[in-house]
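Morning run. Coffee first, then this:
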Amino acid sequence: MGLQQFERRLERMVEGVFARAFRGGLQPVEIGRRMTREMDLRRTVAPKGTLAPNAFTVVLSPADLDRFASIEGELVSELVDVAKDHAEVERYSFLGPVTVTMEADEGLKPGMVLVAGEMVQAEAPLRARIVLPDGSLRDLTGRRFTIGRLPDCSLVLADPNVSRYHAELDPVGGAGSAEYVVADMGSTNGTKLNGLPVVGAQPLRDGDQVTVGSTTIRFERY
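And here it is:
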């Protein structure tokens, strides 16, 4: 996805929520763009992938912070989603949960915005789980999870399009790990990750969708 396409998507996702209330001056979409640029500038290659900042401080003029005061909670939530979406597009990973803090600086004029991003380790070890189509949860943390038709699978699916042993989710890093990969187990119809065929063992990221037969499950870290 090119930058221009992404910015159009960002405008629909963020600006659309607030455009009617804020027709002039600093727009939320500009804050979102600054955050994604900060992620790109400060990303770093790690052994298990590319890490990006997850803790953001947004500094505005006092006047602009006052303008956003009534919708600050919603704006912060939207900006967190922007960071997560950009990480998914660029295949970035985070050390911990995404946070956004908004502050005022008397030295900034209206319309100016500064964004600083840091990589902050989660206070507690992340856990992993899957969300089934009916909304039920299955904890994964540190254990192998198999999907198929046979009763000894971790998730048993009565679906003729599912093989006896169809797919597996495997922890990377041993006991207690929340890092997982998905692999097809030689099934007849294959396994999909976010709509694309799984080839080999592919890393799972928060929010990834794994499809086996007619069933789609969501992988989450929390």
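Residues 109 and 129 are 45 Å apart (CA to CA). Good start to the day.
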